[in-house]
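Below is a filled-in request sheet from our internal design queue. Each sheet records the structural input a requester submitted and the sequence that came back. We keep these sheets so that new team members can see what a complete request looks like end to end.

REQUESTER: design group, bay 2
PRIORITY: normal
MODE: inverse folding
CHAIN LENGTH: 106
BACKBONE (tokenized):
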């Protein structure tokens, strides 16, 4: 290929697809873990999701990530989902036992 005097130099094209911020992911996972923590099977999923999200937030902040409002709220909601998930798991374990015992003793 010949070089023309007015030819534009060929540069690699950059991928300009916007990357999703991890802070939005932290917030979304915190909201979901809190929302599903009261469901029978969701409480177990909320425990796993809340603990994993808090761990990822701690790693993000330890590696120099900015402590934005989304990160703080995501961490708080993950903790709420984790704690409420533990409580509701215990509740959903005991609830059928209590109901069956009440029916049988009636």
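RETURNED SEQUENCE:
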């Amino acid at each position: 290929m010949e070089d023309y005097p007015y030819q534009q130099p060929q540069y690699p094209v950059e991928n300009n697809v916007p990357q999703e911020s991890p802070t939005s992911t932290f917030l979304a996972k915190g909201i979901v873990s809190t929302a599903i923590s009261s469901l029978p099977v969701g409480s177990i999923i909320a425990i796993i999701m809340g603990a994993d999200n808090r761990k990822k937030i701690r790693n993000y902040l330890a590696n120099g990530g900015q402590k934005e409002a989304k990160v703080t709220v995501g961490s708080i909601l993950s903790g709420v989902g984790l704690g409420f998930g533990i409580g509701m798991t215990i509740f959903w374990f005991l609830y059928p036992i209590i109901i069956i015992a009440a029916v049988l003793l009636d």
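SHEET NOTES:
- The chain is about 70% helix and 0% strand.
- The mean pLDDT is 88.
FILED BY: M.R.
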